[in-house]
Amino acid sequence: MNEPCTVLECREVRKAFREGDSVLEILRGVDLDVARGEIVAVTGPSGSGKSTLLNILGVLDPPDSGRVSIAGVDAWKAGEAARARLRGRHLGFVFQFHHLLEEFTLAENVALPGLLAGMSGEDAAKRAAALLEEVGIASRAAQFPSRVSGGERQRAALARALTCSPDLVLADEPTGNLDAGNASKVLDLVVSLSRSHGQAFVLATHSLEITAVADRVLRLRGGRLET
């Protein structure tokens, strides 16, 4: 059977937060489809709801209403165990700050999602080694995060997001903490990995460099996505 082309389907997603006696509507009916291998940039000013949207798409926070389907599964109608499987098998995450575990080497950090997903130690280690080679930091595999550069830490974070071969990678300002040279290298990797592995990427960003490499650029305005 052919795999579905659409890896993410989001319909009429709404989210509001209460502040005292007032209610602040952040998302007011967001619709989004993302195809396999597609790179989508989501822009918008600070406070527009980009991170809130990514948390909902990543099955981390529930919407107030609406539907989010990942690889054909309606995430917020599924039980918690099914959502955990979705996050582990179909989703990868990259953040502005790498969030690597400081007590683990880069190789151990990259292998960890595989171990949590049930890979053997040997298979997880092989997968981590291959990904670190692909992102160009195999020589740093035995180093701890505190001993490598910011760009190398972010490359390791990108490798970690791909350990379980997810259908979709969600990235929140993935180059926001990097200088121009390292940001360019990370973006080149995103494009290369998307094309070679078929992963879809949704990147929340202010960066013009990211929007330049995206297949589509959408702006979050007034709680809705616009082209």
Name a few traits of the molecule.
alpha/beta, globular, 10 strands, 7 helices, 227 residues, 4-stranded antiparallel beta sheet
Quick overview of this protein structure:
The protein is an alpha/beta fold.
Would you write up a description of this structure?
The chain is α/β, with parallel strands linked by helices and 227 residues long. Helix content is 35%, strand content 29%. The strands form two sheets. The chain has a six-stranded mixed sheet. α3 packs parallel to α5, α4 crosses α5 and α5 runs parallel beside α6 (180-197). The two termini are 33 Å apart.
- State the end-to-end CA separation: 33 Å
Shape designation: globular
Total count of helical runs of at least 4 residues: 7
* Beta-strand segment tally: 10
Helix content: 25-40%
Write out the strand line-up for the largest beta sheet, numbering strands in chain order: 6-7-8-3-9-10
- As residue ranges, the low-confidence spans are none
User: What sequence of helices (H) and strands (E) makes up the elements?
Assistant: EEEHEEHEHHHEHEHEE
Class based on secondary structure composition and strand pairing: alpha/beta
Secondary-structure blueprint:
Layout: E1 6-19, E2 22-35, E3 39-43, H1 50-57, E4 65-70, E5 73-74, H2 80-90, E6 91-95, H3 106-116, H4 121-134, H5 150-161, E7 168-172, H6 180-197, E8 200-204, H7 208-213, E9 216-221, E10 224-226
Parallel strand pairs: 3-8, 3-9, 6-7, 7-8
Antiparallel strand pairs: 1-2, 1-4, 4-5, 9-10
